[in-house]
Design brief:
Length: 159
Amino acid sequence: MDKTWWVAGLGAAIVAVSGVSTILVDSIAIKEEMEVIFNGHSTQDAYDLIHDLHSSISSSDREVIRFMSSAYVNGVDFYGRTSSINYVVEDKRKLFQRWPNRDYYFVPIHEETDCKGSRCIVVGVTHFNVSNESGLSKSGSNKYKYTPHFPSKALISLS
């Protein structure tokens, strides 16, 4: 049975069609408030996790490897391949050894980001500048999709 609940004072409605609930709102701020009420976390929680990931990448090798060891679940979907944490950390370690000087930052695309239940999908663009002692440098931007899981605050997918 299809149902609609109005949330007084928030300008929002919860619509359940064929067992799937959707929050209908007039603004992003209200959507955030509704997500916190119904999911226990918000897209801001997901943005914070991705920001922490990028901040760690710009830090020392030891700090970033320690962070990476807890940032992914075992069996993470890592660019389309189910991977162990050890595989991901080793892959990142090689990248960080090649590019010891790193500056990464993430700009979320709010329109493509959504949280449902304990999972969020965060889409955005990572901008980077890297270099090494040999004088090689690289900079650019890539679009990524992250899927953090709450309450574990670990990534279950990266593409």
